[in-house]
Fold this sequence. Notes:
This protein is mainly alpha-helical. The chain has helices at about 10-15, 35-50, 60-70, and strands at about 5, 20.
Amino acid sequence: MERVPTGIAELDAKLSGGYPKGKGLLVTGVSGAGKTIFGLHLLYQSCVDGTECVLIATEETPEDILVQAEMVT
């Protein structure tokens, strides 16, 4: 199965090279666990790699997303 690297070396090693290409990815956890930052990191790395990306945020304001995105780059 083809894998898509996350850009996080330690995580990619645990995931045998990344997450499965063409599959959905659901990240869950308690508030403050880092889900949004993790998702933004994945989006950033995918965009750098030339992949089209979509972020669906149901409980974050656009302003909060932008502030957190600045931490990723």
